[in-house]
Structures are given as structure tokens and as C-alpha cells.
Amino acid sequence: MSTPAPAPTPLTLRRSVQVTIDGEQVSVPEGSTVLEACRARGVEVPTLCYLETLAPVNVCRVCVVELEGSRALVPSCSRPVAPGMVVQTSSARVRASRRMVLELLASSVDLSTAGGDVHRWIEEYGARPERHGPPAPAADRDHAHAGHHDPPADGKAATTTQPVKRDNDQYVRDYAKCILCYKCVEACGEEAQNTFAIAVAGRGFDARISTEFDAALPDSACVYCGNCIAVCPTGALMFVSEHDLRAAGEWDESRQEVTRTVCPYCGVGCNLDLHVQDNRIVKVTSPLDHDVTTGNLCVKGRFGFEFAQDG
Questions:
Q1: Which residues form the domain of 178?
Q2: By C-alpha distance, which of 103, 104, 97 is closest to 76?
Q3: Does the residue 149 lie in any domain?
Q4: Which of 27, 45, 122, 205 could form a disulfide with 127 if both were Cys (CB 3.0 to 4.6 A apart)?
């Protein structure tokens, strides 16, 4: 006797919510965030710790907006919309807050390899990091190591004093560029990989991204999926190939072509974006909107490309 097919699950339709953004009404599905509502209207709101494939953690505070009736500015990446909500995304108060956040970040962290949007925002909001002292020192690239670092003696953030960590053949960790956005921790944890190889260690000025007991990556739980690199907004985590080309002054994205293909290692069907410069693959990414990977890859997909150019 055959088992009857299960009844189809009824579709749950989300009702629309009307909110006002910068004086104009926009209709968005119930449960959307303010950030999603802003994007639906075509309003740019800067973000650093937010990524659509990860749960919001509300740490960078650069996406704050002014909400009518709220005493404090609210993070748009996590605040759900409500009927009748009135939002200002570019008021004097909002711009002053974003400017201060960008100034403090740029004065304490090396943002030289951050995405182009970061530098555009610094200019757009009139941020002047020099008001808070000299530029953040770059890491000591001449003394890269994998061992434990001593706590800073001068009160500066530990993330600006760690030397470059190069303890494997896949990627480099340069925590002088880390803004503690938590993206790498989330991507390594329950949001994606479930490896839990890294976490935030320390408190206050000594807060930093670390493996357990600050072990070298080969001695940690890391499986080298590279998903942490994919989500890093500042270049604190970087392919060895990209790091070496930048150090030699040869990294040039204007000379690079990106070709989408399918990973050859198994039948899952992960999409790969091959970044090619001078006829050599220099790094591999995966599209966030791909329904198989959502930007994530395994060690073979992310780093197993050398066979294509060793001949």
C-alpha cells in the first residue's frame, strides 16, 4: 500500500509595512530591517559589519539612522521595520555619528587595503582621522610570526600591534587591519562553517581575533575553507598570493579578469569566481547570491587552483 503524499505546505504571505524614509513612503514586507527598506528605496547606508548572509551583530555602528521617537540612533542592519516608522538616513546627527565612527576606525586601524567604499565614505562624511593622533601603525611585515604576542604596553589596541601572522600556505592574517567586525567569527561559526576555530579573545584594548590559546593555524581547528577571508572587509585576512603581489607592488585589480566557473572537485556544483591577473589565478571567490554556496567554499574550492597553472 502506497503512502499518501503529504499535503502541500500553505504559503505564508507577509503583509506589507508602510514606512517613511527621508520624507518618502516605501512599502516593504513585514519583518524587513530598516537597512533593507532603505535599499529598497535606493538609499545608500554605509555598512562594515553587516553581510546579507550573516546574522547582524551590531558592532560597527556606521549604519545608524535617526528614528522618530527614539532617544538614540538605531542600527539599521538589525532594527525591524514597524508600521508608520519615520526614518532619517542623512540628518546632521546621523552624519556626525558616522563621521566619528569612521574617524576612530581610521585613526586606530590600518585601512589601506579596505574596500574602496570605505575611503569614499571617509571623504563623503568629512572624516578627519588625524584629529585623534597619528595614523595607526602598519604591522611589522619584516617579522611575521605565528606565536603569541605580548599585550601592548602603551594602551593602544592590540589589533594595531600584532605582527603579520603567516603560518600556512593559504592565507595571511594581518590584524593591524582588523576592525573587530565579527564577520570572520560568524562565518567560521554557526552561521556557515561550524568549525569555531576563531573567536574574540581579550577585553577592552586587548580585544582581538584569535585561535584557541592563540595557537598557530596549523595547530588550531581551522579547516582552511577561507570563508573568513571572503567576508573580511579590510584585508586583515588575505590570500597569500594577493599578499605577496601587494608586497611587491604588483597587485592591480584593473588588470584582472573575473571568470565564473563550476568547482571541479565534486558534484555539489559550487560556483567559483576566478580572479586572473597576467594569466594566473590570484584568488578565488564565490558569489553571495549562489543558492548552493552563498559565498562559502571548502579548502579545495577556495585554494585548490594551483593545478591549473603549474604546467
A1: 154-308
A2: 97
A3: no
A4: 122
How far is 217 from 90, CA to CA, in rounded Å? 42
- 159 within a domain of the structure (yes/no): yes
Whether 295 contacts 286, CB under 8 Å: yes
Q: What is the CATH number of the domain that holds 206?
A: 3.30.70.20
In a domain, 161, yes or no: yes
Is 124 within a domain?
Answer: no
For the chain, list residues with pLDDT below 70: 1-13, 136-161, 310-311
Domain count, the chain: 1
pLDDT at 152: 43
Long-range contacts of 192-200 (CB under 8 A, 24+ apart): 192/53, 192/54, 192/227, 192/294, 192/296, 193/223, 193/225, 193/227, 193/296, 195/221, 195/222, 195/223, 195/225, 196/221, 197/221, 197/222, 197/223, 198/222, 198/228
Instruction: List, in sequence order, every residue forming a beta bridge with 237; answer none if it has no partner.
Output: 173
The predicted model scores a pTM of 0.83
Give the H or E element holding residue 99. Answer: helix 92-108
Structure confidence by residue, pLDDT tens digits, 76-88 = 999 999 999 999 9
